């Protein structure tokens, strides 16, 4: 990639989105344009464009007279996001069971095993990356691309606020156990069991409130 490509608003937006989703930038952290210029080697215009685009996606929020920061939705908003995710992802789970072929299942199993192998070994951000990869590949058998896009969009909105889910090693291990159970239910073509695991996986964070 040459310097011109690296400086485009699209590329800066993708890099900033990734840093937020994967936990390199924490919820509530202020995002100064000058810092982003240094971080990504981009122009002020590209940094501003990235912030504006991610504000529209509600991954970043703008505080009048103060600037931009990583979004930090309230418990009420997180609950609303979870409610919608439950509807979409339980619907999607049934379609994954119907559509997934041998190659899909192999890729999903590999992603779950990669996450499991990293528990208690890899740093937080790498585990976040593996977790994100698992969920994206899990729903990849969907033929409804709009549904797939909405699921990923809502997960990205919720992920920056997901730090507390992994506050202990036990919680990371629970996530891994859920992933492996999802694979087992998929292999068994057990839609009811898979939907039950998905519901539990999505609502674990509510137990802290």
From TrEMBL:
SMART domains per the UniProt record, alphabetical: FCD, HTH_GNTR
InterPro entries the UniProt entry points to: GntR_C, TF_FadR/GntR_C, Tscrpt_reg_HTH_GntR, WH-like_DNA-bd_sf, WH_DNA-bd_sf
Coiled-coil intervals, chain numbering: none
Source domain of life: Bacteria
Ranges that cross the membrane: none
Signal peptide: none
Record domain HTH gntR-type: where: 6-73
Keyword Oxidoreductase: no
Keywords: DNA-binding, Transcription, Transcription regulation
Entry GO MF terms: DNA binding; DNA-binding transcription factor activity
Keyword Transcription tagged: yes
UniProt name for this protein: DNA-binding transcriptional regulator, GntR family
Organism of origin: Roseicitreum antarcticum
Higher taxonomy: Bacteria, Pseudomonadati, Pseudomonadota, Alphaproteobacteria, Rhodobacterales
